[in-house]
Design a protein that fits this description.
single chain, alpha/beta, nine-stranded mixed β-sheet, seven-stranded mixed β-sheet, 10 helices, 27% helix, globular
Length: 318
């Protein structure tokens, strides 16, 4: 039995559930499920009728397999793992997962080098790598992926804009601020995953973090606060955005209530209470969110698919 699709009620900003059987027989679904998001690890599942792709693998391989099973997906069914950057809370389960199931890893060259250094001497270090250039556009089965740089203290961190059928999804976690180019890349997405890492007052008053760490978190290569994320969302409101998923909340310096409250207040000030809002958690998977509809039927690989998967070489920037 397919697991339910979560949809937002625009008026009340509540999640409603509809069984997949209610979809037209001629259409499929492009969906997002957050497998876990927070200080302790991050991973998300994108799925269509033809593809299943992870964004980051920052949970243990055991937890990734367990949470995928809750989505009725086996690790060997994955078409790839896309990496935003090399930090451990985004890659810690990747080595075991990819060694056991030979899952392709999609990332840029500097991120691959940094991850491989951490796996030095392990079999997965020479594994199934698919290298793209930051700023390039390519496809994994029927999901089009557009990559773009984000400011963060990693070697070459990226965000993504995904397109499949009628749905478009923006994915930005771990960034210090939103560049003008990033806003333009996300202008037409109808769903957004964005980090709300910390509440500024809680971070300021946190006694466990030394001052230099606080400064790094607040810097332009650190993390978005709740208010900073709300400002990014405000800039996207003139576009097509309908739903927002908040993620990567700090365990000590944020709460779902504070993150949701800051963003909801901004939406109310802008007169956009119709935008659906959901806060992802560390401990459990989210509902399955419908991003858009896709066409059913046999998938025909494009030249990009065939070339990229066969060669594993870098794609020229779009």
């Amino acid at each position: 039995m397919p697991w339910p699709i979560a949809q937002f009620n625009r008026v009340a900003s509540r999640i409603l559930f509809a069984k997949t059987e209610t979809q037209s027989l001629n259409t499929g679904v492009f969906s997002l499920t957050m497998l876990g998001s927070g200080s302790g690890g991050n991973s998300a599942l994108l799925a269509t009728d033809h593809s299943r792709v992870l964004v980051d693998g920052g949970l243990s391989a055991r937890q990734l397999a367990f949470r995928l099973a809750q989505c009725q997906v086996r690790p060997e069914q994955l078409d790839g793992v896309l990496l935003t950057h090399e930090h451990s809370d985004h890659v810690c389960g990747l080595e075991v997962l990819c060694r056991k199931f030979d899952v392709p890893i999609y990332c840029n060259a500097l991120t691959a080098e940094a991850v491989r250094c951490g796996w030095l001497g392990r079999p997965a270090a020479a594994g199934n790598w698919r290298i793209f250039r930051t700023g390039s556009e390519f496809s994994i089965c029927d999901i089009t992926v557009q990559s773009f740089p984000v400011p963060h203290d990693a070697v070459d961190p990226v965000g993504f804009a995904f397109q499949a059928g009628s749905g478009s999804l923006g994915f930005i976690t771990d960034l210090g601020y939103a560049t003008k180019m990033l806003i333009e890349r996300l202008r037409q997405v109808n769903m957004l995953v964005i980090e709300t890492n910390h509440d500024e007052k809680l971070l300021q008053n946190d006694s466990h973090r030394p001052w230099p760490v606080k400064q790094r978190i607040k810097s332009q290569h650190g993390h978005l606060s709740n208010n900073a994320a709300a400002s990014v969302i405000e800039q996207l409101l003139p576009g097509r955005i309908e739903r927002v998923v908040l993620g990567h909340l700090s365990r000590d310096c944020n709460t779902p209530a504070l993150a949701s409250g800051a963003v909801r207040a901004q939406l109310e000030r802008c007169g956009r209470t119709d935008v659906g809002l959901f806060c992802a958690t560390q401990s459990e998977i989210s509902s399955r969110f419908q991003v858009g509809e896709t066409e059913r039927g046999a998938f025909q690989p494009t030249f990009h698919n065939v070339f990229f998967e066969a060669s594993g070489v870098a794609i020229r920037s779009a």
